[in-house]
Automatic annotation (TrEMBL):
Similarity comment: Belongs to the glycosyltransferase 9 family.
Entry-linked NCBIfam families: heptsyl_trn_II
Keyword tags: Glycosyltransferase, Transferase
Organism field: Noviherbaspirillum album
Family annotation (PANTHER family): ADP-HEPTOSE--LPS HEPTOSYLTRANSFERASE 2, TETRAACYLDISACCHARIDE 4'-KINASE-RELATED
Reactions mediated catalytically: an L-alpha-D-Hep-(1->5)-[alpha-Kdo-(2->4)]-alpha-Kdo-(2->6)-lipid A + ADP-L-glycero-beta-D-manno-heptose = an L-alpha-D-Hep-(1->3)-L-alpha-D-Hep-(1->5)-[alpha-Kdo-(2->4)]-alpha-Kdo-(2->6)-lipid A + ADP + H(+)
Enzyme nomenclature, EC number: 2.4.99.24
Protein's UniProt name: lipopolysaccharide heptosyltransferase II
Amino acid sequence: MTVPIQGVARTLIISPNWIGDAVMAQPLLKLLHDRHPGRPIDVLAPKWVAPVWRAMREVDTVLEAPFRHGALQLRERREFARMLKQRGYADAYVLPNTLKFALIPWLAGIPKRVGYKGEMRYGLLNVIHHDNREAPRPMVSFYAALAEAPRADVPPPSALPRPSLSVSDERRQEVLARVGLRSGLPLVLFAPGAEFGTAKRWPASHFAELAKTLQAQRPGVQIALMGSGKDREVCDEIVRLAPGVLNLAGVTALDEAVALIAGASVMVSNDSGLLHIASALNRPIVAIYGPTDPNHAPPFSDVATSIYLALECAPCRQRECPLGHHRCMKGISAEMVRVPVEEALASDV
């Protein structure tokens, strides 16, 4: 990989591995850009997260990380750091909490290296922030805090810029046409997957019931299922129960998914990366929470409804229901979700 030497100081952001976390880190970039408007911001990101960063106006260049997930690959990191050194970074913000990614700016000799304490990172980072495990910061505040000197109290999400992504209308139309959707009809998107685990998934039968109700009440409505290839099985189940729903799980690349979400009339989603993409695109959202806290990573759209039963066992933050009943998600009925979906469709003129 050949990178020309840059004549201006730059900022390096090292991306988290999760799509939703990358979206919620965008306000940090806005704060850094406002502080140094002439300083380009580069992002080092895994291939599967890179399309999200490319949709952020503050990003100058996205560098795709060539490392295997979970592997130290010290020699490869040293070689990559040598390339980064040529780009003239003044500072680096290490968003993952791992030792592996803190090594990179240290090996590259970047003078200011900022991040959370994480795993054994003293010396690798020279501006170290601390989170409180007993009262963790909301994700937007967690990342935005890195723009300032370390301190115990941080601004709430309401005091920060909202996450923001952008997609051109031409790109949106292009992707709609490719997958067979029409721009002149209402488009309801469902995101029934959740990479974290099954505990965060609203049941497929509930998604299907919602789809059938919308199809009956709104002839001509387009309903499509979004997700990766890993979500194909649950999406196939929804289509089996509600024929006429378009299954796009594993069909669209992430950049195409971003473009489709930009054209949605409303999106119904579990607490997942696609939810936070819809939020950053300011699309109407109905967000379904069970084992996770809606206040920790809420949607920020102008039109957003978060549904959360707040059971005595929630939020457990577990990948699988530790009690085996999954009532936090099963107890959210299709009717509870239909009402805010209908309200969003009624206002979509």
